[in-house]
Amino acid sequence: MANSSSSDRINSNSNCDEQFPTSALLTAIVSVTSTVLYLLIQKKSQSNDDQEIDFRSDVVSFSSCTIAASRALESERDDALVVDPLAHILAGVHALKERRGLLSTAGTSRIAIRTKYFDDFIGSFLTQRPTLYTAESAGSTPNADNICGNKTSSNNYRFQVVHMGSGMDARAYRLTGIPKETLFYDVDTEKVLRYKQTLLAKAISDPNTAKELKDMIQNGNRRRKSVSANIESAHEWESSLLSSGFDPQRPTCWVLEGLTYYLGSDDIVSELLSKMRQLSLHQHSSLIMSVATKASVERAQASTKSPLMKSWKWGSDNPARCLTENGWTCCEFENVVFLGDEKASYGRWNPPLQSLDSGGSDVELGRKKYGIMYVTARY
Asked: What is the distance between the alpha carbons of residues 225 and 377, in angstroms, rounded to a whole number?
């Protein structure tokens, strides 16, 4: 019995000795895991910093952040033309700091006016009550079953908004009172779309982000699709857009906001407009874009203060003709509005008229000092 008791004590001690290294090992594993997680977080943070630095090095891509910064500053005003709750997030610290440091508010006012003008057009498009037949069935007589407002309400009709060169646009998130089935397609470079997604994902994971903003981002993500493509290659962006679920049979609003200035040539612009028209089979499809006059592009290219404006390449003195030549319906006296006109001022912008230059040129509308036009067209 003594021997047995002694043996039990020995075995018990042996078991204790076996448990100790196991406990120590678990502690070591936890310590190592914590270290690895810390390093991974640091690496991710560094990766985000590197991504931001890389993004800022591209003046055209980074301009999307400065435009968001302008929307953010506009949103802070008591008399704001537009309120974009996500603008501060999408602008980022550096763009906000840069925009706040400007003495002039002209840039912010210009972006606010443009955003408001485009918002109103897109909102009007999304709240129309279009027929449910397309160009392919336009020869048939519409009946009660295929007219919105009878058996089908515009509130559950599937509209599409395609934003070419979307940058940090947030309409998929912030527009209210639009049909719940509306789909937004953001078409831009992989770099821009990836950075935008990084900013939105960071906001969701940040415990300091208000719940309302997190809900706004998550709801917007459900109706927004990112389409990575080179916009100057019609074949590439068409293929990517269709692969993302775009339906040419649905009423579509094409948005070219602050894009055309950076396109390389007349041929590229024509191919872009023509391809959009070919993909617009529904008779209620529309388009809105901002265009600079040729003189404005020349002045921008000669700028010594703005690397971004030096990147301008394309302008037109008759965008209505450019659109009609590529299949769209556009009247220069009804669908072309200059920044500063009564319809595009909102009491914020009143640039003086320049002298007319109609001697043999295409300029029939006259030129404003800042030479920016907002142009709309339809199917």
From this structure: 24
Please report, for residues 4, 15, 17, 20, 21, the alpha-carbon distance to residue 9 in angstroms, rounded to integers and kept in the order given.
9, 10, 12, 17, 19
List phi, psi (to 5°) of 161.
-120, 120
**129-132: long-range contacts (C-beta < 8 A, 24 or more apart)?**
129/154, 130/154, 130/157, 130/251, 130/282, 130/283, 130/284, 131/283, 131/284, 132/157
In the DSSP assignment, the letter for residue 227 is E
Structure tokens at 312: 């301008």
Sequence-ordered list of residues with C-beta below 8 angstroms from that of 13, at least 6 positions apart, any chain? none
Q: How many CB atoms lie within 10 A of CB 80?
A: 14
Q: Name, in order, each residue with C-beta under 8 angstroms of 51's C-beta and a sequence gap of 6 or more.
A: 194, 195, 198
Rounded Cα–Cα distance for residues 1 and 162 (Å) = 88
Contact 158, 178 (CB under 8 A): no
pLDDT, tens digit (0-9, with 9 covering 90-100), for 77-112: 999 999 999 999 999 988 998 888 775 666 678 999
177: which DSSP letter? S
Question: Residue 357: left (phi > 0), alpha (psi -120 to 50), or beta?
Answer: beta
Tell me, what's the pLDDT at 61?
85
Q: Which two tokens stand for residue 259?
A: 């894009």
